[in-house]
Amino acid sequence: MAEKSILNKKSLDFLEKYLNTASPTGYEWNGQKVWMDYLKPYVDSFITDNYGTAVGVINPDAQFKVVIEGHADEISWYVNYITDDGLIYVVRNGGSDHQIAPSKKVSIHTKKGIVTGVFGWPAIHTRDKSKEEAPKPDNIFIDCGCETKDEVLALGVDVGCVITYPDEFFVLNKNKFVCRALDNRMGGFMIAEVARLLKENKQELDFGLYVINSVQEEIGLRGAEMITQTIKPNVAIVTDVTHDTTTPMIEKKSNGDAAIGKGPVLAYAPAIQNNLRNLIMDAADEKKIPYQKRATSRSTGTDTDAFAYSNGGVPSALISLPLRYMHTTVEMVHRDDVENVIKMIYESLLKIENNHDFNYFSNKNEGLF
Q1: Taking the model in full, what pTM does it have?
Q2: Where does 142-288 have alpha helices with state H?
Q3: 234-272 pLDDT tens trace
């Protein structure tokens, strides 16, 4: 008999609404409102900071503080230059992929509302096959149907307007979730589901739990850098996405071996505190939650690094969701992996709760070596 899903209709309705709400780096507030509205029944209070990171807090008076974290922002573009004949050139806001841009519909966010445009591209018939140019950041452009710069400005479009893709959530072949910005609003979704399960299962914690949806990860882990100084946590469990390396043109020797549908990916890196990762693995083994492993060398490239190297060193670990086609509009994850990340974080928190020895995470613990 198949195990019952931990995701219910309300969860999936929230996921779809959350993913479909634009939340570009530096402009995350609309997505954060959706996230906080969903999380409100499952936490005791909220913290927000000056740049928009949102934190739901359970048991806020506790001295020992545990963080579970994802990041809220999605990659995007900025309007950088408008030509006299009304075409728009762009610069990145985060790691936007220029090669997928041509022929994509876009939403330009202005004070007057959303203006629709398209990334144009010369027709195949007109290109010189002997010296064909690939899409590059300096040759892709947006056409919003205007013939002059003044027409563009009259729409409310100006230098500094942020640009997102409007591609929306759908399910492929019953169990594959597909959308733009699964990196990493899936993280925000999964930690919210952990909070829901704790509430619905009437689990009380001896420690304070800080459910953090950070901003500005895509431009250098900035939201996590700020909020960790505010909260000063004792332990941080971060969730983000990592590459499914089974699709074409990815070299497993350099990118590791991970696949969607085979479980969350646990990271090995200098920022990962061994005792905390071992606790997570023990929790997964006890509950028969499948997982994969990945070594990330010098840094994880995620908010884990920001937490780990803050406040004199915070024991931190990374649980990653395997994902295909990162930084495209068709990012793909497996529903089973989503559920197993949620279960892994949930069971790890209960293991911390049942351990009743918060010094376990100290670097001074002789069991570290």
Answers
A1: 0.95
A2: 149-154, 182-200, 222-231, 252-255, 274-286
A3: 999 999 999 999 999 999 999 999 999 999 999 999 999
